[in-house]
Amino acid sequence: MKIKEFKNFKDKPLPELRKELQAREEKLSQLRFDLSAGKVKNIREIRHIKKDIAQIMTLIKLSNHA
């Protein structure tokens, strides 16, 4: 996730953040499955998706406490 994209997430409502989180988790699951099958060429994409998930979860946690 780029910095601009992260800043756009700060303005999104909680249901949209949860939807985006679910989409990223599904993509991570698919990438892990493809990795075990030997289909993934860009292994770093998994790292980026995990980082995106962590950032979105942080925003959700902060919005719950606000």
Primary descriptors:
66 residues, mainly alpha, Helix Hairpins
Task: Tell me what you see in this structure.
The chain is elongated. The protein has one domain (14-65): Helix Hairpins (Orthogonal Bundle), CATH 1.10.287. With 66 residues, the chain is mainly alpha-helical. It has helices at residues 3-10, 14-37, 44-65. α2 (14-37) runs antiparallel to α3. The chain is built from 3 helices and no strands. Helix content is 82%, strand content 0%.
What structural class should be given to the helix and strand makeup?
Answer: mainly alpha
pLDDT averaged residue by residue: 91
* Rg over CA atoms: 13 Å
- Count of helix runs: 3
SSE pattern, N- to C-terminal:
HHH
Look up the CATH topology: Helix Hairpins
Per CATH, the architecture is Orthogonal Bundle
Share of residues in helices: over 70%
Report the biggest beta sheet as strand number plus sense, adding barrel if it closes: none
Question: Could you list the spans in which at least 5 consecutive residues all have pLDDT below 50?
Answer: none
Chain oligomer state: single chain
Strand content: under 5%
Q: Can you count the beta strands?
A: 0
The N- and C-terminal alpha carbons lie at a distance of 24 Å
CATH class: Mainly Alpha
The general outline is: elongated
Number of domains: 1
